[in-house]
Amino acid sequence: MLHSFTTRLRRILPLRTVIRVFAARAGAAAARISPIKERVYIAANRDGVLRGNLAEIDRALLNLPHPPKILRETQHPHEKRGSTVGLGVLRAVVRIFIRSYRIASSRLVIVDDYFFPIYPVKKRKGVTIVQVWHACGAFKRFGRATLEAEWGADEIFLKWVPIHANYDLTLVSSASIAPIYAAAFGQPVETISAAFGIPRTDALAPSPRRDAAERAVRSRLGLTDRRTTVLYAPTFRGADLKGAQAPELLDVAALHRALGSDYRLIVRLHPFVKSAMRIPAEVGDFVVDASGEPDANEVLLAADLLVTDYSSIIFEYALLGRPMAFLAPDLTAYERERGFFFDYRTGVPGPVVENTEALAHWILAKQFDLRRVADFAAASFDVMDGRATERFVTGVALPALRGEAIRIPPPVTR
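Now predict its structure.
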């Protein structure tokens, strides 16, 4: 039976994928021998640590009067998968087997990205799997919406590994984008909900907590003077995570000459990018590197203006009601390679510029369209009251830990 299964797979899939599928199914099968454990399995697949929604949920669970047992998985996207021979095979099998076992033996599983061990198996009854996703809104194409891309999954792969399958609930920021997520994940639209809110946005709601966090991050980054802060936070470039690179679109020296001593530039590279941005020595203390800051939302708090390209960070930043611009000289190529869910040129909440000179002119002119930002935020979020994490714990985590089915509220009416 086993030989027949692997032989059929190898005819259409690479050997490494065959190994991973087999290891996932074996781990799930082994878990079914024992009762489900009353625990939460939180798995991160972004940059090796719990961030954003996962960090907020983890913190809230620990603060309960009777905290549940929590098993944390901080898989790094750059981790070596091993070769298809010798010890590489063993490492791959053991890693996938263990993760699949943990999924099938935990009452509640929470992930915020693609997590392979979830998909090639039949979900165990009594296990609840929640996808909280790492990005708000629906900006760049993802999931099954990237099938036509060179780097996306193909139909043969999906037959054996139905990516983003087995979710009982997916959190989104607005009910208007639920159909997009349903199509991208191949899930019923009824399981896509904006009614709970997005946990990581709680820290951006006006509150003493937000004020304290802003003071703290400004202090850590040395931004205690009155200079205007401009955050440059581009997304990565590259066909895969291992080859992620920072774009070289911003002329830092030219921006410094144009803005003068009244401004500071905060640089926040994407977590997948491991090489530092080249900073000219002549700019002095104009540039502050915040790429190592653990919480991207805290960095947003330190920024008076945002400059990005195609990063979904624009959704969170819009909640602050502050101006933003888009440095996107490679828009045509990026749109052809990755694609968007809306017209980039008219859909983003700020001007699109092609060079540093135009960006500097926008900053110095100070003619910011904050109404456009506010409208974008209102359209992107159904719930913005700072209580999303609380709702998630009481409405999702605790019922799931009791073995109850999740009751997904109807969409929020405005």
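The two ends are 56 Å apart (CA to CA).
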